[in-house]
Amino acid sequence: MLALLILAPELKWYIELALWLVPYLVIGYDVLLSAARGLIHGQLLDENFLMAIATVGALAIAIWGRGDYTEAVAVMLFYQIGELFQSIALGKSRKSISALMDIRPDFARVERGGELYELSPDEVEIGEIIVVNPGERVAIDGVIESGESAIDSSALTGESMPSDVYVGDEILSASVNLSSPLRIRTTKVYGESAVARILDLVENASSRKSKSEKFISKFAKVYTPAVCAAALLLALLPPLVLFATGRDANVGEWIYRALSFLVISCPCALVISIPMGFFASLGGASKRGILVKGSNCLETLASLKCVATDKTGTLTCGRFVLREVEAVGISRELLLEYAAHAEHASSHPIAKSIVSAYGGKIDRARVSEIREERGRGVVATVDGIEVRVGTPALVGCQAKESDGATLLCVSVSGVFAGYITLADAPKENAAAAVSALGKLGVRTVMLTGDREDVGRAVAREVGICDVRASLLPEDKVGELESLMESGGKVAFVGDGINDAPVLARADVGIAMGGIGSDAATDAADVVIMDDDISKVADAIKLSRKCMRIAKQNIVFSIGVKLACLALVAIGVAGMDLAIFADVGVLVIAVMNSMRGLR
Amino acid sequence: MKKVYKIEVDCPNCALKVEECIKKLEGVLDASVNFMALKLTVDFCDGADEQKVMKAAQKAAKKVERDCVIYF
């Protein structure tokens, strides 16, 4: 048929038109149908409707000017190819992003009455035994009842090194069992397990829209009507002016340019590429074990000026390690033995560290009376002798310089017996994390409830200059607010358990290692799933990359569209370039957005 | 009351228009369409009849894009 058209240029115009209409309708019938439907529903700025007007208009001009019918057909063809590319690109991106989040367990294999049943994870109750074979994902949080294996918890922490687990170890859902079957006694229902929490966070994340996304929505609303209005002006004004001044009005040419405008009037490239950039970045972050609760949080993260951080458990390991035992009058071992027995019933971290530093077996029968003095220490009777462990005031002795460590004094039957010093060591990578933040132009401030000298000692080791010490939880909120007043966005990093009010008050609350706790996931904007402090800097880097991508896409898409509009208006370019400005830009912007995943 | 529904919508601009239409419906406090996740989040006014509102939402969505389906 095309051969016929090319070989027989002398055909009557209506025959030629009829022949061209065949490929036109074959390619674009669905666009025309949607356009008609849009017309009925009053959707005049619908993409299909505008495309239909543009191509039908081009055909009409061709008839009128005995001109070229190929253009309308070509434009429709390119448009359809572009749409195809667009849906392929979108489908691919959707798939690769959601693959990251594909941690939803399909079933849990429950042991009931000696038989195994594959049930929906929702139906499993607390305290039941689930069996997880190698290669399967743990569906519900629990404790290992029998079996030992290596597990891959990269979905939780982003850390791909497998770790070994043994009987009695806690195991979080979303981990993958690697080597041998495990029987796990569930400690939570599915809905409260780590995997359900993560999915909930991730799935709702992109519903909290960022400022750039809101800007694009607003822009899209005015862009199409504005371009259509411009098209109308372009079709009417220049011919009128030319006609009035007595020159050739050339109506066909101006209408053609106006129709090309319509092709560029869809804001799809912008409308999709910006949210997609955010979506991809949220996915990329969760791949690294950083859950960001919304696109708006990414935006704030990118503009952070200051990170306020808790000390214990955030910068430090949160475990007190015995630094020094100075015994007076009795042996070092005996001093520790007495202290450990006196402290064994307390749940205070310091007490626990002393018991573990002692290392020997605690004989509860030797301890008769235990009295805990809050904030001061313990008075207990061990082997019938009164033992005091605690502050100098409790024991009634002189304090000594402890260089930032926690000092405990011990007396045995009223006689001073020595000092025990304990220190909470900074995390290995804390110093690197603080300097990484510095490199990003972000200041780090320590907010701690601990004594000034203890805080300073840790701060010195990790490289923080600004320390606010001896703060009660409510003081921390006050300090944070004063930091926020001094300009710039402020994040707070904490464990999420004691610091919920501070996390909630900060511009960005970052909870460390708290996926298991409600408080953390409720109050925080960002949850770092393991307690790796260096991920704070990673999160900021990711968010800045995301904002860069968003800016590039905004400038590129709007820029190219405006440039094409200008070229079309002055007649340098035709509908072919207009098509590129529509679908070509979209595909490029979408591909750029996908960089957020990496 | 906030609820999340699966939505099928083809073009991002249409998703935006669907969102606008649903926002204007009676009984809807706020609505947002997440085109990437294909999810519609609707925040209902107190005492709104979910089924009724969602039927209206489906109707409005169909007007914007013929193939648009909301699963409720």
Q: How many domain modules of chain A?
A: 4
Largest sheet of chain B: 4 strands, antiparallel
Please provide the count of β strands of chain A.
Answer: 22
Structural category of chain A is alpha+beta
Query: What's the SSE pattern of chain B?
Result: EHEEHE
**Order of strands in the sheet with the most strands of chain B?**
2-3-1-4
| Poorly predicted regions of chain A | none
Q: Work out the radius of gyration of chain A.
A: 35 Å
Instruction: Please report the number of helical segments of chain A.
Output: 20
Q: Would you give the CATH topology of chain B? A: Alpha-Beta Plaits
Mean pLDDT of chain B: 86
Summary keywords:
heterodimer; A: Calcium-transporting ATPase, cytoplasmic transduction domain A; Rossmann fold; 7-stranded mixed sheet; 6-stranded antiparallel sheet; 50% helix; 19% strand; elongated; B: 72 residues; alpha+beta; Alpha-Beta Plaits; 2 helices; 32% strand; globular
Describe the overall structure.
The complex is a heterodimer of chains A (598) and B (72). Helices cover 50% and strands 19% of the residues of chain A. Chain A is of the alpha+beta class. Chain A has four domains: 2-97 and 209-275 and 550-597, no CATH class; 108-203, Calcium-transporting ATPase, cytoplasmic transduction domain A (Distorted Sandwich); 290-315 and 427-529, 3-Layer(aba) Sandwich (Rossmann fold), CATH 3.40.50; 318-425, 3-Layer(aba) Sandwich (Calcium-transporting ATPase, cytoplasmic domain N). A seven-stranded mixed β-sheet of chain A has the order 10-22-21-20-11-18-19, sandwiched between helices. Chain A is elongated and about 120 Å long. A four-stranded antiparallel β-sheet of chain B has the order 2-3-1-4. Chain B has a single domain (2-71), classed as Alpha-Beta Plaits, CATH 3.30.70.100. Chain B is globular and about 30 Å long. Chain A binds chain B through residues 34, 37, 41, 43, 46-47, 87, 93-94, 97-98, 203-204, 206-207, 209, 217, 220-221, 266-268, 271-272, 275-276, 279, and chain B through 4, 10-17, 20, 32, 34-39, 41, 63-64, 66.
